[in-house]
Amino acid sequence: MKCRVCKGAAVIDVRRHNAAFCKEHFVHHCDEQVRRAVHSHRMLEPGERVLVAVSGGKDSLALWDILVRLGYEADGLYLGLGIGEYSDESGDYTRAFAQQLGRPLHEVDLGADAGYTIPEAAAVTRRSPCGACGLSKRHLFNSVAIERGYDVVATGHNLDDEAAVLLGNVLRWDTGYLGRQHPVLPATPGFVRKVKPLVRLGERETAAYCVLQGIDYQVEECPMAAGNRHLGYKEVLNALEDRSPGSKAAFLFGFLERGHERFAGEAEHERDELGECSVCGAPTPGTVCAFCRLRSQVGAIELPVELKVR
Ligand code: AMP
Ligand code: FES
Ligand code: ZN
Ligand code: ZN
Fold first, then answer.
1. Does residue 133 have its Cβ closer than 6 Å to ligand 2?
2. Rounded CA gap, 249 and 165, in Å?
3. Cβ of residue 119 lying under 6 Å from some atom of ligand 2
4. What's the CATH code, domain 40-270?
5. Residue pair 102/69 in contact by the 8 Å Cβ criterion
6. CA dihedral (118, 119, 122, 125) positive or negative
7. What pLDDT, on a 0 to 100 scale, did the predictor assign at position 305?
C-alpha cells in the first residue's frame, strides 16, 4: 500500500476515495475534508468565536484539534451528563486534551448545574435516556454559546452519524427532520449557528486521526445507548459500504445537494412559530421549553402554578 501523494509507505487506506495515505498526507487529507466542508457550506468565517462541543470521544477531539490547526479561535464545551464512570472518564480525556491543546474548556455539570443527571431523568420520565440526553445537549450547547459570546457551535457528527440519521428520517419520511438535517443550521432569533465540519470524514478516519496524532480518547460507547436505533442503521449502512464503497457518501451528499431543499420550507415554518420559554427565555413552540419541563419533572425547579398544566 503506497501513499497516493508521496508514494511512501501508507498507514491507512480510504476505500471511499480509492486512496491510501502515509501519516503526513492522511492528516492533510483530514484537514482538507474539513476545509472543504467548512467552505462549501460556509460554516465559519475567519475571526468568529467557535464553541466546540467535546464529549471526549474521537470525533469531537479530532474536530477541536483540526479547527485549531486551521487557525480558528475554537474553545471547548464539555457537559458532565452524570452517566457514572463513563462520564467521569470522558471528562478526564477532555480536560487532558484541552491542556495539551492549550485552549479554554467550559464545563457544565448537569447534576450540579441543572439539578439532574441523565440516568435520573430517564428514570423519572420513563423514556429513552437518549431523549433526555439529546434535549439537554441541544439546550445547553445553545444557551452556553449565547451566554459566553460565541458565534457558532460545532459538533463532531461525522459522515457515519449523518448517513445513519438520514436513513432513519427517510425510513419514516419524517419531513420536518429532513428539512432540518443539514451540516449548517443558520442562526435564528434565540439560536446560534450550528455546524458539523466532520460530515466529509467517516468514523474510521477520525479514530485513525486521533491515534496518529497521539490524542487519547474515550473508546467506550455511551452505556445508555445500547439498543439505540441509530446503531442498527449504522450496521446496515456499513454492510452496504462494504459491498460498494462510497455508497454512504453518495447517499448523504446526494440528499444534501438534491433532496434537502425540497424539505427546507417545512423547517422554516416550524421555526417561525416559536415563542419564548416563560421560565428561561429559550425559543420554544409551547409556553415552557422542553429543558425546563424536564427540570420541573425531576424536581429541580418548581414551575409557577399557572404553568403546571403538563
Ligand atoms: P453523540 O450525540 O454522542 O453522537 O455526539 C454527537 C456530538 O455531540 C459529539 O461529537 C460532540 O460534539 C457532542 N457531544 C456529545 N456528548 C457531549 C458532551 N457530554 N459534552 C459536550 N459535547 C458532547
Ligand atoms: Fe447519551 Fe444515549 S444517553 S447518547
Ligand atoms: Zn504521503
Ligand atoms: Zn426554558
1. yes
2. 13
3. no
4. 3.40.50.620
5. no
6. negative
7. 77
Cα separation, 263 vs 276, whole angstroms: 25
Residue with CA nearest ligand 2 atom 3: 130
Tell me the CA–centroid distance for residue 27 and ligand 3, in Å.
10
Domain parsing of the chain, residue ranges: 40-270, 273-310
**Residue ranges with CB less than 5 Å from ion ligand 3:** 3, 5-6, 8, 22, 25
Contact 260, 41 (CB under 8 A): no
- Please work out whether the CB of residue 135 comes within 6 Å of at least one atom of ligand 2: no
Interval between CA 1 and ligand 1 midpoint (Å): 34
Ligand 3 centroid to residue 5 C-alpha, Å:
5
Residues in contact with ligand 1 by the CB-under-6-Å rule are 53-55, 59-60, 77-79, 81, 137, 155-157, 161
73-96 pLDDT per residue, tens: 999 999 999 999 999 999 999 999
- The pTM for the full model equals 0.95
Residue 69 has pLDDT above 70, yes or no: yes
Evaluate if residue 16 carries a pLDDT over 60.
Answer: yes
Q: Report d(CA 152, CA 74) in Å as an integer.
A: 10
In this prediction, residue 304 carries a pLDDT of 81
The pLDDT-based confidence of 303 (bands split at 50, 70, 90) is confident
C-alpha 161 to ligand 4 mean position (Å)? 28
